[in-house]
Amino acid sequence: MPRKSYKRIPVCTGIIIALVLVNFTINAQDAQIRFDRYHGYTGTSEYLKKVNTAYPGITELLTIGESTMGKPIYVLVISNMSKGTTIDRHIDLRNMRKENIQNVPPMKIHQGKPGHFISGSTHGNEYTGTEVCLYIIDKLVSGYGGDEDITSLVDSKAFYICPVINPDGVYNSVEKGIAQRNNSMEKDDDDDGKINEDGPDDIDGDGYITSFRYKDDDGMYIIDESDPRLMIRLGRDTKTDKQRYSVIREDIDNDKDGKRGEDPESGLDLNRNYPEGWWKDDGFAGGSGDYPLSAPETHAIAEFFTNYRNILMAQFYHTSGGFTYRPMGTAPHPRLNPTDVAVFDFIMGKKYLEIIGEEIPEAWLHPENMEQYKKELAETDADSYSKSRGYRLPRGWRVSYNEEDDERYGYGMATDWLYAQYGIYSITTELWNPEDDIPGFEIPDDENRRVAVDKALLKYQDEEYNGDLFVNWKAYTHPELGEGETGGWKSQYARNNAFPGEPLINVCEKHWQFELFRAKLLPEIIIRDIKPRIIYSGSTNEGTVKRNDSEFSVEKGKGKGIYHIVEISATIENTGALATNLADGEELPGNRQDVVWLVAERDNIEFIEGQPFISLGSLGGTKKIPGVRNSPSHKEVKWIIAIKENTPLKIVASSLKGGTVYKEIKFK
Amino acid sequence: MKTKNIYTRITVIIIFSLLTAQLIYPQKKLQKSPGGEHGEMDFSINWKKYYTYEEWTGIMKELQNKYPGLCDIESIGQSRMGRGQLLLTITNKATGKHTDKTAMWVDGAIHGNEVNGITCSLYLAWYLLTRYDYDPYVNELVDRYTFYILPGLNVDANNSFVEYPNTPNNPRETYRPEDNDGDGLYDEDLTEDVDGDGELSEMYREDPEGELRLSADGRRFVDAEEGFEGLRFTRIGSEGFDNDGDGRINEDDIGGPDPNRNFPYGWNLDAGNPYPMSESETRNVFEFQLDHPNIFASFHYHNTGRLIMFQAPPPIRLSASQEEELSEQTEARLEEMRKTNIYAQLFARRVSDDYQHDMDVQTKIVTEGAYILKNYRPVIGGLSGQAHAATYYMLGAYSYLIELWGSPVTIADTDNDGRLSDEEYMKWIDLDLAGDGWINPHRVIHPDLGEIWIGGSAKKHMQRTPPSRYIEMEAEKNARFVMYCASQFPRVKIDDIKVKAITANIYQVDVRVENESEYPTASDRSVQLKRYTPDVLSFEASDNITLVETSGKDLDDGRGRRFSYFTRQEPQTETQLSAGEKTEFRLKGKEKRVIRYFLAMEGKKGNATFTLSSKTGGSDEESIVIRVE
Fold first, then answer.
1. CATH assignment of B46-161+260-311+382-406+468-487, among 3.30.70.870, 1.10.10.10, 3.90.230.10, 3.40.630.10
2. Which residue of A has its CA nearest to B389?
3. Is A565 helix (H, G, I), strand (E, B) or coil?
4. A590/B274 CB distance under 8 A
5. Sheet harboring B605-614: ordered strands across?
6. Which of B174, B176, B185, B270 is best to mutate for the A interface (most A CBs within 10 A)?
7. Which CATH superfamily is domain A525-665 in?
């Protein structure tokens, strides 16, 4: 159906207005959403299409790739599609090569605005982030036009929301109930000539793939005394007089090769498949896959970020724990530029801790005293990275790098990659901490905290969900393992994901608030104080100068009409909170400096002083970054030109991540 | 059927039976004399021309059509602009599936402008197919092995280079848009043929202050001496328009990352951006290679400079003084070696024991390469995201990057100073090429610049790609080097079986297995990658024979097993106890190995069969009969 921009409604007349409004209202109702159940991959895809239909003026639905099993990976763009501009709309190209190579697509309007990327479900079973993405979409599209902050953000920024990075993992985890962290792969894991022939099974046929427990003297579990639904995992050397059990996923040996679940659909860990820190030092693979970005899903994400270089913020939701990883995991602290660290910790980290209600480190509240904190920390047994910073990272805002033992965490993670290679404030939030996210959640006393939380969750789902999230144990005779019982948490919920309803809404609201805060930090370029001054005006001719020693003779050519000699100055300013690039961002291949062009019909303009475009470096932000000297947020530019009378002239300022704007110049 | 009788001390008769897996297909038109045609006339191709995409893929399709029993054609994927990357799979289908045979990968022109790589790989395909019926050497290679040949890798740029006016250096990259000048626009200021003469040359403007003048013959721009009174010039740059009106010309040319810095091994962001395997052209290739673990070695054609760049194992880190010592040793040893073989090669790289065999094999192979290609120089290749680094380091395949062609220094260096002056170069054009190859300076009206001069440079196919008459000469010897490498793919056999009676019913049976070729059955790197299948010798016998199982250890540990060009130690036969019915090992190049069994036999007569099987080197089977007389 044709796109209708509802920003254009005021210019339409009579009946058309009424029709469009009716249409719009119906669609908007259609795109309402509730969070009392999970939407899964299918529900999410339907919702994205509905939102796109209901809000054509402020959304675009991109398909950025396909999963292994052929499911589209969607990104919903939310931005006012009738506001803004891009640099290629202003520069006319001429005398192009006869070959007529069409390798450069026209820029989309939102590529001229600072971008904010938010994603969920890189790991299929860590699903909560998908719902948070939908919540954020709902807030943005339904708040547009009503809420001033949201309207302004949607007008001037571009949100790129990818609720499901791993469609197959989500489909299997949420819709089929087979918890699947990884993507799917058509791979013969056990080299028997058959592909994906032995995965988990709903052996008792109750519609859920839960667990099977059976008596086993070598088992690692015992049944909890106070709540016999609960299995308690023993420590490696723990002794017990109680009956030991083994607990496995519901599964049989489908291909009768003596092994259970040895060739499931589950494939690669997508968050170990990114290029940064993928290799081990010894030249062998450390990350997942045959090579970095080998998975179709990560490849789609990489190609997306390559094409949408305007993105400066990124969030990859995982579960669980209720804290955020900022970069980096594969490299120690010195890999980050101190300016970026200050933005991450003192600005974003501080806000995040406020939102989740965790105590903010004293050093962050008084960064001006950092030397003192460093001295104090030097006297302690803190690790060297904490000492060099002046503070230990708090529980709620941390790095995955193990600073205490000076060991990297994993290989090839998205957040590290986007920070180090694309110059993006990328973070990974581990959503869902029942203690914080369920109001009045009480954890009983128990020496085993994990068991205590499990007990409390069981009680909570008994009371609030009528016990629907847990399948009670019932006798089952396993064809290979004999007598036992099937039952346990439905795999969608367990400890992994915020329970639908109030807990989920709490998680969503907090993280919407945090991303809203981050979006408001984005840079914003403006052009101000344009001062054109005509130095000279007059009728003119073409001329060529010939020199004979100290004598210059001018040969007059044909008449060119009235020309002005004009001196033009203007100020390009970033009025956003943060700079237009990370500290080293403009140096990264694919990024660039902010530039300003002076544009007129080419045959009517001569540049006497100054070039048609001038590079500005990166413009600093307006927000004071503690402990860092902000770079200037504005720069003055100046040209002297000769221009034919009545020739339209404009200034176009273009920052890759700070937006593109233009102003026409009027002078008499 | 070969039969041998061997009499031991107590008279044991051993009957050998020959069982080769190889089917021998008779050649239809075996050519007995090296004079005369070998099939070229069955499918004649004009090798005095560079072909456009439509033309070279047309030739591939016709070849496949003509030789359907030896050849398949497929597209391994599409380029950015939607061209198919066409690949020929060459092997005799009657002797087995291509995936079951040890394979050679050959690609040409990953860099758009290096199109003599297309010719060389296309020539190899044509050579193998047309000569199959005539030439026993080619016949055997095509029966036994698979050749995957991708003549054009970077198809968009390859076609552009041939079909449109271009400098010898462009277009090199794939067509991902890139903002080279940081002005916010992508690929917006390309080169153009301003004067419409079909060549991309250099632009100059008249300038009384200029540093250049025309040469005496009016063909080149040369430095103007002080006080020179005539026309002076300043160079503007290569031919083109100012498309975006920023005052500069050709500053944002077509293309993005260098595709040969885009592979995963040794990849870095600066050279290989935006990310590893970002280009569909490179990704399609690497995905194909990953899907075909039978690829044993690879060739990648580039230009220029006449180099055999091969991948060597990772070096051991040495101190500066150790480096110096190694380099001196190497030179001294090489000088000695070159007294008997002027093509001898030796490289100052020390590697760990785990990799010594790869180092030795590569040294041996490129020594022969230097002989076959004559004025080509072997050097160790770099990593930095290059295709041949990925094939060796990630797939474990032996890899070679050939830098084709180079300046005609060997034929035109009249003063023998080892380099080609402008005068020598012009003379070569005038006498050898009958004057065809130079763009004379001429006046042109340029829409952005007014009156300028264009010219004073060689034409497109004069520097990095050879003029047409040299194409086939270069392609032919390069085809021979690839075929030599394929001829050295591992071939295993059971060489000999010896039986010794220890007591009247306990026998020691020594089975000697051999790899006749230079290449091992798996490279050291593939062993380190755990991306290989061990060779297996298995044992079966009549019911009255039992195998006395042992620990399966090597019996001659540390007795100079390493073959090294430094020490000139010849490989010695290793002896290994059999651990059981299946014994696993890896046969190195030219290696013989004895597997020792202890057998207990009851009664007067028994028989045993030994089967040698190597995933890359083929298989062999021998049976013995022991009869107590």
1. 3.40.630.10
2. A283
3. strand
4. yes
5. B19-20, B618-627, B605-614, B535-541, B582-585
6. B185
7. Immunoglobulins (2.60.40.10)
Q: Which residues of A147-164 are buried (b: 16+ CB within 10 A; e: fewer)?
A: eeebbebbbbbbbbbbbb
| Sheet with B307-310, edge to edge strand ranges | B71-78, B84-90, B146-150, B103-108, B295-303, B398-404, B307-310, B377-380
State whether the Cα torsion A499-A503-A505-A510 is positive or negative: negative
Using the beta-carbon criterion (under 8 Å), do B182 and A593 form an inter-chain contact?
yes
Express each pLDDT in B53-81 by its tens digit.
Answer: 999 999 999 999 999 999 999 999 999 99
List Cβ neighbours of B291 (8 Å cut-off, separation of 6 or more).
Answer: none
Q: Enter the tokens of residue A217.
A: 């003297």
Q: Domain B19-23+490-627 belongs to what topology?
A: Immunoglobulin-like (2.60.40)
Instruction: Verify whether the Cβ–Cβ distance A615 to B182 is below 8 Å.
Output: yes
Task: Annotate B345-371 with b (16+ C-beta within 10 A) or e (fewer).
Answer: bbbbbbbeeebbbbbbbbbbbbbbbbb
Considering chain B, tell me which residue range(s) the CATH 3.40.630.10 domain(s) occupy.
46-161+260-311+382-406+468-487
Report the run of H or E that residue A476 belongs to, with start and end: strand A470-478
- Identify any residues that bridge with B195 across adjacent strands, giving them in sequence order: none
B277 to chain A: which residues are within 8 Å by CB? 291-294
| Domain ranges (residues) in chain A | 1-30, 33-86+114-186+266-359+394-432+496-513, 361-391, 525-665
Does A291 contact B247 at a Cβ distance shorter than 8 Å?
no
The arithmetic mean of pLDDT across residues A260-283, rounded, is 96
Summarize pLDDT for A142-198 with one digit per residue, the tens. Answer: 999 999 999 999 999 999 999 999 999 999 999 999 999 999 999 999 999 999 999
| CB-nearest partner of A95 from B182, B186, B243 | B243
Max CA separation in chain A (angstroms): 113
d(CA B575, CA B385): 41
Alpha-carbon distance A121 to A126, whole Å? 6
Q: Report chain B residues whose CB lies below 8 A from the CB of A616.
A: none
- The residues, any chain, with a CB within 8 Å of residue B115's CB and separated by 6 or more, are B50, B108, B109, B152, B158, B161, B162, B465
pLDDT band at B572 (very low <50, low <70, confident <90, very high): low
d(CA B396, CA B282): 18
**CB-based contact, A598 to chain B, within 8 Å:** no
Rounded to an integer, what distance in angstroms lies between the CA atom of residue A585 and that of residue B175? 24
Residue B489 — φ and ψ, nearest 5°?
A: -60, 150
What are the pLDDT digits (tens) for B30-54?
776 777 788 989 999 999 999 999 9
- The DSSP secondary-structure symbol of A169 reads H
Whether residues A615 and B290 touch (CB distance < 8 A) is answered with: no
Q: What's chain B's Rg over C-alpha atoms?
A: 30
B332 interfaces chain A, CB cutoff of 8 Å: no
Render pLDDT for A154-163 as a digit per residue (tens, 0 to 9): 999 999 999 9
CA of B312, closest CA in chain A: separation in Å? 14
Domain A33-86+114-186+266-359+394-432+496-513 classification at class level:
alpha beta
What is the Cα–Cα distance from B308 to B482, expressed in whole angstroms? 12
A649 pLDDT band (50/70/90 cuts)? very high
Instruction: For residue A136, give the nearest of A124, A153, A156 by alpha carbon.
Output: A153
The tokens describing B112, both together, are 């758009």
User: From CA A372, how far away is CA A390, in angstroms rounded?
Assistant: 8
pLDDT of B292 over the 50 cut: yes
Residues paired with A78 in a beta bridge: A59, A159
